[in-house]
Amino acid sequence: MTPRSVGSRCWAIAEGYIPLDKAPNDDPRLMSHESACMLNTNDQDAQVTLTLYFKQREPAGPYRVVVPARRTMHLRFNDLSDPEPVPRDTDYATLIESDVPIVVQHTRLDSRQAALALLSTIAYASE
Fold it and tell me: Positive or negative CA dihedral for 77, 80, 81, 83?
């Protein structure tokens, strides 16, 4: 059975912020981070671009990733480096565009305090 295509080609995450911090016990899995969790139910790979928008400077990007067909990807913004690393301690917003419909969920782990905080929400779809 072929899965049906779900999602949208254009998504926005209006809120983004990666604090300056170290992971508790130096465990990189617990380092504060922002993620775009993307689901591609299509039979073809999704060619995805991300553009970051800031209050005090011009946008950064495009960052390019491929979400394989019938797969999911949890992309940490901390790991983005080309064309430049995502700045820490800076507010930003993200526009995510795909050549096929995908679903995007935004997740943040904040480990600045001993009691970790996790936030997750569906991004805004524009079509």
Answer: negative
